[in-house]
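Following up on my earlier thread - several people asked me to post the actual chain instead of describing it. Fair enough. Here it is, all 140 residues.
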Amino acid sequence: MLGDMNARQQSVAIVVPVHSEQATLGANVEFLLDYLRSEFPFRCSVTIADNASSDETRAIADELAGQWDELAVVRLEEKGRGRAIRQCWLASGDDVVSYMDVDLSTNLESFLPLVAPIMSGHSELAIGTRLVRQANVRRR
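Reply from S.P.:
Thanks for posting it. Predicted structure:
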């Protein structure tokens, strides 16, 4: 079972790349962290990867990081989602690395079925998408 002691020994890194997201960052990251603390059986770290934002995104991210132990902020001076994800993944020591968009457009309950096969050793890679016809997309 995923909720046993072994699950708490494994860890998942979640990178949230952002660029000028001051309007949605605070509420969505807090929603994500609340979900992970209450519903997700694995230890998690969340990194907000700020891609050269020109608004108050960095200040909001820093404030959030001061409130949540499992949250970190990385600032990149150049824009680039791939650059941000790569930098954070390479620096991670977690068992599984992942990323999600800050708009949380995919139901968070879909995250565990995505990473569970990797955590159990059943799979080496999992990809979730909202672009398939059967996807249920609801933006917060």
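The longest strand covers residues 43-51. That should answer part of your original question.
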